Amino acid sequence: MKRVLSGMQSSGFLTIGNYIGALRNYVKLQHLHECFFMVVDLHAVTVPQEPAALREQTESAAALYIASGIDPNKASVFLQSHVHAHAELGWLMTTLTHMGELERMTQFKDKSAGKDSVGAGLFTYPSLMAADILLYNADLIPVGDDQKQHLELTRDLAHRFNNRFGDYFTMPEPYMPEVGARIMSLDDASKKMSKSNPNPGSYIAMLDEPSVIRKKISRAVTDSGREVKYDPQNKPEVSNLISIYSHFADMSVAEIEAKYEGQGYGPFKKDLAEHLVAVLEPIQQRYREIRASGEIFDILKKGAEEAAEVANATLLEVKKRMGFVI
Ligand code: TYM
C-alpha cells in the first residue's frame, strides 16, 4: 500500500478543472492506498483573501471533498492550518530552497505578472508545498499538470535534505489523469481553467446551478468549423470540451468523436451540459446536506488528529537530523 497526499487551495470555489485534474483521482485512490487529503488554507492566503470569504471557501472545499465521494473513514480529510507541522516544516524547507529555484516557478511568474506589489508568501509557496508532501513521506501525489514543476522542486528538496542529513525522505511521484490533466478556460483555450479567474463564464464551478452550467456551456468558445474532433493543436477549444465530456460521461475520446460525426457542435454541447448536470447535481445535493448537518467540523477534527500523528513524527525526526535541540 502506498501513501497518497494532496490538497486544493481555498482561494475560490472549486471548479470542474479541480474535479477532473485531481478530486476524481482522490476518490479513486482512497480505495487503494492510505490517503491524506487537505484543504490548503495556508496557501490560500498567499494572495489577499477576505476573512469571511476564506472561511466559506475553506468549509465549502472540505464539504465538496466529502460530497464528491471521499469517505472520511477511508481517507484523512483535514485543513492544513489545523496541523501546525506544515507551517514549521515549511519554514525549514524555505531555508533549503534557493532563490533561483523559486524565481523559475511558472505559477509565481503568472500570479505576480503585472502586479506592483507581491507578497513574499507567494514566492516561497513551493517550499511550503514541499513540506506538505514530505511531512507524510507520500509516494503518490494526485494533481493536475500545472503542479508538475512544484513536484519536481519537492523532489529536489528531498534529495538535498537526504544528501545533507542522511537518507530520510521518499521521492514523491505525480499521479495525473491521461486526458484532462489541464482543463482550459471556456472563454480562452490558451489559459488554464481557474477558480480565481474574475470572469465566471471562464469556468464551471462545482456548485454552479444547472441553468448556469447550461448557459456557460452554450456560450463556451468553439471555432468556425463543425467537426467534433480531438486535436489540441488545431482545435484547442473543442478538444478541451471533449476532455470534459470524456470525464463526465465516462466515454473515450474516440467514442465521443464517433457519436457526433457530421452533427456539428450544437448537439455535442447540449449533451455535454446534460452530462455535467447529471454528475454535479447529486454532488450538490449531498453538499447541501453536509453543510446543513455541520458534520464537516467533526470530520476535519478527526482528520487533523490522524494527520498530525504522522506529520509530528516526521517533523521531530527532521529537527533532530538538522541539529535542533529536542
Ligand atoms: P490548486 O488549488 O490550484 O488546484 C487544486 C488541484 O486541482 C488541479 N487543477 C487542475 N487540473 C486540471 N485542469 C485545471 N484547469 C486545473 N486547475 C487546478 C491542480 O493541479 C491541483 O491538483 N499548489 C497546489 C495546492 C497544494 C498541493 C500541496 C497539491 C498545496 N500543497 C501538496 C498537492 C500536494 C495548488 O495550487 O492547487
Write the SSE topology.
Blueprint: E1 3-8, H1 16-29, E2 34-39, H2 41-44, H3 51-67, E3 75-79, H4 85-96, H5 99-103, H6 106-112, H7 120-134, E4 140-142, H8 148-165, E5 173-175, H9 210-219, H10 236-249, H11 253-259, H12 265-293, H13 296-322
Parallel strand pairs: 1-2, 2-3, 4-5
Helix pairs in contact: 3-12, 4-7, 4-13, 7-8, 9-12, 10-12
The chain binds tryptophanyl-5'AMP.
Strand percentage lies at 5-15%
Ligand roster = tryptophanyl-5'AMP
Main-sheet strand order equals 1-2-3
Major beta sheet summary: 3 strands, parallel
Write up this protein.
It is found in: Cytoplasm. It contains 13 helices and 5 strands. With 326 residues, the chain is mainly α. It has 2 domains: 3-181 and 294-322, 3-Layer(aba) Sandwich (Rossmann fold), CATH 3.40.50; 200-287, Tyrosyl-Transfer RNA Synthetase (Orthogonal Bundle). Helix 8 (148-165) links the parallel strand 4 and strand 5 (173-175). Bound molecules: tryptophanyl-5'AMP (TYM).
